[in-house]
Request: fold
Amino acid sequence: MFRRFCFALTIVALFATTQTHAQPGTVPTTQVVVTAAVIDGGLVRIAGVNFGASPNVFMGGVPLAGVAVNATGTGIVALDPVFPPGTYLLHVSTGNGPVQNGTFSLTVGAAGPIGPKGNDGTNGIDGKDGVDGKDGRDGIDGTDGAAGPAGPAGPAGPPLASLNSIAGVPCTIGAETGAVSVTTAANGDISFRCVLPPVDPNAGFDAPLETVDKYFVAFKQFEFPAHASSPFARTCFGDPSGALGIGGCLGPSAAGLALDTTSVNISFPPPGPTPLGALGHFDARWIFALSGIVPFQYQVLGINGSCSVSVNGPAMGVDLVFEFDRMNDSTQDVIRLQSISELAGNIDLGNCGGLAEFGELVLDSVRAQAAQAVIEALGATRVCRARGTDVFTACPAP
Reply:
């Protein structure tokens, strides 16, 4: 069963990386908007919303230097590029998507005075009126012809050899056309069914592919490593002070936790992949074995002890959601990790007699660091596929 990666006594900073990657909704989708901009004292000051933490700022197509953003993402200060007087397009970008870009027209220098009014132009010469054409006369409607005589009856068709000969005859369900199938049961009952053609699994792709699974087999090999390991950082819990004090520390361990992939299942929700210029999502379930040996020092009622915790999770797993971006202005399809679920599966601990006092605390610490190992094992969470191929590579820097 799933358990939350939380332990009230665990140091918060230890899991900062896990929380950043693991929680849903970490991919912002709100529109970047520039509401005002001015040049003041050698600086370009910009106001708006959804600027993020490190946007790119351009003025007249030239990237600005010294970009700094306030804590709320509503104000930007950058160095003035010292452009000559005129009006320039100011562009703030946090990514490739339409909602991640905003523009503003910024005027450099004061506006000049209004020029004098020009003289009226001379009137043009009136053209000659056209000659009206004469309407033709309407023709006389023709008389409806009489119905022709009924044709002779056709010859009788051959007798039906068997009901099985109906198989393959066209049939319709709503607006779709299929073919009749005939099934004969062991007791002699015959049933008829209108079978529609199968749905094309490649609908929405710009290149012909046999199945969705074939398309993502390369992605499975690229994104999910067969084997990965992560060092185990020192984690302490409890309060060993006092006569009744109970506490302990796990790690550190350079060997850490090892992940060995068992299987990866990827599936699209209906209706499947999206067309160009749209975002889609697909799910992945990653099953792996978790193992490692971590040193453990503890104190119970003033008595110190130590041992090595043997971690064994033969069937661990996480569910992930990926975003599939098929951009119109690119020759690549981009896949990003959007969210990761809680760690599922039981972990057996051995080789420590003192675990009777600390079992759940040790388990919570191991699960928390296992989640971090999962994030680190995924490595690049943004991969690209060249259009018309099945090859995935690390995306170039944005």
In short: Residues 1-27, 200-212 have pLDDT under 50 and may be disordered.
